Amino acid sequence: MSDDVAPEYATKRVLVLGVGNVLFGDDGFGPAVAEYLQRNLELADDVYVMDVGIGAGDILFNVALSPTKPKRIVIVDAVDVKRKPGEVFELTVDQLPANRLSDFSLHFAPSPNILRDLRDQMGIDVTVVACQA
Asked: What strands lie across the sheet with 88-91, from one edge to the other?
């Protein structure tokens, strides 16, 4: 990425990232939501929705380095926080499960650490819309 050129997704007011691996059943929740939004809703011009699979870390690093940034990032992902399977709920970055706090494996991308940096150091409102796996 060039220092002066922002990727299109970083220029939008709202960036929605569908995170997950469709090969692992309920871990495909995020990509399924992204696909549904793209196919069934007329999205505002300042909203960008992406199925990022397990590549959210790359997208978020690009946002962090971009000269322009979204005002809000919504991560859509499956998590395990011992709720009723299939329950959809909202989490803040600080509420992500403890087993994800220092994890940066491909399966558990994006890392809460970069989400915190985007929120705390760059002023981006970060929300996680989760589904109990």
From this structure: 47-53, 14-19, 72-79, 125-132, 88-91
Q: Three-state SS string across 30-91, please?
A: HHHHHHHHHHHCCCCCCEEEEEEECCHHHHHHHHHHCCCCCCEEEEEEEECCCCCCCCEEEE
The answer to whether 64 and 117 are in contact (CB under 8 A) is yes
The owner of tokens 């002023």 is: 123
Domain boundaries, the chain: 8-132
Cα(38)–Cα(52) distance, integer angstroms: 13
User: 8-132 has which CATH code?
Assistant: 3.40.50.1450
The pairing of strands 88-91 and 125-132 is: antiparallel
User: Is 31 within 8 Å of 20 (Cβ atoms)?
Assistant: yes
Q: Is 116 exposed, middle or buried (0-12, 13-18, 19+ CB in 10 A)?
A: middle
1-48 pLDDT, tens digit each: 555 788 999 999 999 999 998 887 668 899 999 999 999 999 999 999
